[in-house]
Amino acid sequence: MKTLPSSVDGILLHGPDTPSFEEALVAVLGRAPRELLRPALPYSVIVENRAERTVAFLGVRFDMVSPRAKQYSVVHYADALRNPDKAELKPGAIRFVCAEPEYTSLVLRGEVAVHTRGRMNLENLRKMLQVKASVDCIAFADGQFAGPDSQKAFDRLTADRVTEEALMGEMEILSKAPESAVEAMLFHAVQDPDNRARRSAARKLLEACEAGGCAEALSRARNFRYRVPLWR
Questions:
Q1: What pLDDT does residue 81 have?
Q2: Are 78 and 174 within one domain?
């Protein structure tokens, strides 16, 4: 696998064919790689944060060429923008990322088994003529966003925040309305076919409404945790 240099200052990407990868991997695991993880290492990278700020959002892109010369790409994201103080990629920290996300979970969560689908996907990776890894985008804990952002994560995350703010505004407007009106609005929002962010936020509020009434839903709306506002 080829690893491309990071375009973001202070963010390094270590490929599996470098001594720095092996050293970092031992640091991540606290010991030599387990046999369960070893087959995935040729398709994995270590991200290192040498910047002075915590990284709260990370996108690592993998570009692949199939045996039939067809090109594929996927970006794996790690999002801690709602709780940037709990983000793990602090200055000096490192993070393991595999092209098959089940193996990333294996390291991050200390899991002891890989599902069949993960093993099958890894087998598909072995058949690829070429695999390239690169830093697609990052956002620091203060909201500064950087990187090529091939999948327009900046626009999506910004739009999601606007959507969530609008929904919480609707809840405030309906704070004096009958409970049936609040429930009807949330039920309609949960079924919105075109806006995933609206569906997701409304589902949380509807669950609160069902558990503790509309007062509970309004309380959660007023205390809703938004992602950090992004800027470039």
A1: 98
A2: no
